[in-house]
Each structure stands twice: as structure tokens, then as C-alpha cells.
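A quick aside before the break. I want you to see a complete sequence-to-structure record at least once, exactly as it would be stored in a machine-readable document. Don't worry about memorizing anything.
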Amino acid sequence: MLTEPYKIKVVEPIKRTTREERYEVIRRAGYNLFNVPSEDILIDLLTDSGTSAMSDSQWAGLMMGDEAYAGSRSYFRFEQSVRSIFGYKNIIPTHQGRVAENLLFSVAVKPGYVVPNNIHFDTTRANVEHNRGVALDCVIKEAYDTRCRLPFKGNMDTEKLRRALAEHRGKVPFVMMTITNNSGGGQPVSLENIRATRAVCDEFGLQLIFDACRFAENCWFIKEREAGCNAKSVSEIAREIFAMGDGCTMSAKKDGLVNIGGFLALNDDKLAEECTNLLILVEGFPTYGGLAGRDLEAMARGFQEVLDEDYLTFRIHQVRDLGQRLLDEDVPIVEPVGGHAVYLDARRFLPQIPQREFPGQVLACALYLEAGIRSVEIGSLMFGRTENGKEIYPELELVRLAVPRRVYTTTHIRYVAESVIEVFRNKDRLSGLRLVHSAPVLRHFTARLEPLAG
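That is the input. The structure line, written in C-alpha cells, reads:
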């Protein structure tokens, strides 16, 4: 049996609530778990972003942060740590990943431009569309079959990509690849597929940019699953991946093991200069990028810690254990289990609720009512949209149970499994929701809903 490869030095109490209390909380929140105060959550699986427990070394680094406005020692330590893994020439710190996306897309995406990706996540898509571009998903078709156990379901469909680049020639600023593929169930991308994608980019003279926020988990899957890679270290695989790219965006709030921070890394000097000029306008001087020096110190250490293979092995197996416990009780999930989360297949879980009634959101609310567990819907509420008066629904209707890094114990994970199984046993009692308020962009963050019945 695997045990946690760390011991606990600091604890935070969590509050238990009654079902009646949770009902009042979710009702006041407009059946949107983003609106629920964290003190009313028992187990918080809303996101793995910014929710990691930092190490004693990272906390020590906070005390060593150099808060100089320009040329901070902490920046240079951060830069060295990043370059040792990613290898890119220009390292631009930002306070989180979506700012890195915003800088890149604001400079490179013009109205009508098309940005291909395996699958864009919510903020990536929103930043493309905010600049009046088109976010085009080119993932392999197996990604949409939640029961398919292909080992690399995050892969790019390179033929679809090639057709898209030919069709939109002159209107594609670069190709993106998300590792691991969050919207597709946290599924990894293979080295072979990255090479093939690189070859397609070379055919069309385009840069390949990674969304690298869960790069270490993707590297672990390559080491475990891809022929010829078992003898390589995770660090070696990471360097091999990024050598095939021209840059990356990074939310360090995932595989940087920090609570805030990110960066944009680019080899293209001109593009980097334009992004840096925008950074100065909106974030601050290039050697702090909207962050305190102590945050740069924590990131520098976190990027090295996340490559520890004992940590990664436990991390992946903790999530895998949750998924297997659900599969043992026939709970429908995305298979195989990905790196950072277990994804419930809400369409199979709640077949009686059509997508127009937000089955994923119904399921997320039911889990909170049952057990005080917060998850997030990745389906009709997050990705549904209206085109020419017609509602367009995503192919996947999921609920993500995102496991924070180094936070919850095996007992917590087993409690989550038991709670999901209990909701599944009583699934026929659940009915749909209707939307009563929504914002024009990223509506799932602030939407308010109400039950259709009861």
C-alpha cells in the first residue's frame, strides 16, 4: 500500500454541517458552488488550482523573498528554476496562468484568427474569444468516449489539425497543446503525439505553444505508459517535451505547488518583447510580474519539488484510488482516470435529465447536499452557448472532483468515494435546474440557478 510521502506539520480545522444547513447555503448561493463560502465546505474539490499545501522549504523561501521592485534576487532564482525544466529563452512572470494567456492572445490573436488546441479549457477559450478569435478543438475522437480506455486520450488529432491549418492558412498565430488535457478528463498526451504535432507545425511554419500547468503529471503518465520511456526520469521527459515547443503558458498554481503565480515563456524575442510591454502596463515590472518576491521564491522551489517521483507516484495513485472505488460500484466516470481529478460522467449518471437542464450542475449540487463536498461542473453550464438563437451543448457533460496536492489524506478520499456512491444509489430522486442569471463570458463563475421542481 502506498503511503503519503510526507508528514503533516500544520493542520487546519474543517467544519461539519447538517444537510439542512447545506440546503440553505446552496439555495442562497443560487445553486452555484462558486458562491458557497469555503467555511461551509467539508472537502473542497472545486479545483486543484492554487489549493496545494506548500512544503517546509517553500515556506522557508517566503522568508527569503527579495521584494526589490527591479532585479530581485528571487526573480533570478525563479528564472533559473524555470529554465532548467522548460528551457525557453524569455521567462515572463505573471500572477497566474490566465494572465499569461491574456498577454499572449492580446498580442498575437487578431479578429478572425484561429487558435487550434487539443481542447481549450475555460479561461483559455475565453481569452481567445475575448480577442475575437476562434478557439478550435482538435482532440482525437476517443476523447469524447468516456468509457474508452486509450492511454493517451488527450492526444491531438494531427489530421484534423492539418486540415484546419490548411483551411485557415494565414490566420493561425500558433498551435497550442494542453498537457494534461483538463477539459477532456485530465488525460495525458504522448511524446509520439507531441512529435507528430510538432511535425505538422513545421509543415506550416507555425510555433507550438504548450499550456503546461500540469506538465509533471503528463510526464509521469508518459513514463508509465509509453513504450521506451520507463527508464527515463520525469525531468528528462519534461525537457524532451519542451524542446519540441516554442514556448508555454503556465499556471504555477497546479504543478508549481503554490497558491499564486505563473509565467509565460517564449523563444521568439519579438513576441516576448510585445508581451513584456503589455505586462508592464497591466502587471508591473518584468522581474516581478504582479507577484511578491516571496511568491517567486515559492515557485522556484515548487517547480523542483513537483518532479519528485515519489510525490508524483503517490499523487497519481491517490486520484486513481478514488476512481477505482467508484468504478467498483459501477459509477460512470471518464476512463482511464486522469492525473489531477476524477471526472463523473453526468449524462450517464443522470440519464433522466437533459443537457438543457444542466445535469452536471445538478450532480455537483447533490454531492454538496449529501456530504458537504464541493466539485465543479464541466458541461452545459461551463461550455454551453447560444448561436443564432439556438443553444449549443458540449459533447462532454462532466463533474470534476479535482484533488488538491498534498492536502487530503487517504481517509478523506475514501469519504468522497462513499459519498458519490450514495448519491449514485439515489440518483432517480434528482431533477433539473434552470438558469436565472448569467454573465456573457465565463458564466459558470457567477451564474444563478433554481430547481425546476420542488
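Two observations worth writing down. The chain has a mean pLDDT of 95. The longest strand covers residues 90-94. We'll return to this after the break.
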